[in-house]
Design a protein that fits this description.
Layout lengths: L1 E5 L2 E4 L4 E8 L7 E6 L6 E6 L5 E3 L7 E6 L4 E6 L8 E7 L7 E2 L3 E6 L1
Parallel strand pairs: 2-11
Antiparallel strand pairs: 1-3, 3-8, 4-5, 4-9, 5-6, 7-8, 9-10, 9-11
Length: 114
């Protein structure tokens, strides 16, 4: 399985971005989501979406971030609004696996300028 993330970039504070992640190599529908890692910090969960469409977003982000998915495209999206400089991080797409903590893609950089 491969995860291809896109949509990152440089945005001013208050702006919006939408990240996309497409899984290839498997048609099996499993939970997918996003993690992020800011410089000098540990990787942290952002949001997860299950195949039935149920979502889990970190409380501190739930008012600004939403996660959605397109099963037909095996793609998940992370819509981010009202971005803040502290949202600057590498955002990693994540996919559930039956064993271990799951699988992460290469990541996409999001930089929010003040």
């Amino acid at each position: 399985v491969q995860l291809q993330a896109s949509g990152g970039g440089l945005v001013q504070a208050g702006g919006s971005l939408r990240l996309s992640c497409t899984a290839s190599g498997s048609n099996r529908l499993v939970p997918m989501g996003w993690y992020r890692q800011a410089p000098g910090k540990q990787r942290e969960l952002v949001a997860v979406i299950a195949p039935d469409g149920s979502t889990n977003i970190v409380n501190s982000l739930s008012g600004r971030f939403t996660i959605s998915g397109d099963d037909a495209k095996n793609t998940v999206y992370l819509q981010m609004h009202a971005l803040k400089p502290e949202d600057t991080a590498v955002y990693y797409c994540w996919r559930y696996m039956d064993y271990g903590p799951g699988f992460w893609g290469q990541g996409t950089q999001v930089t929010v300028s003040s």
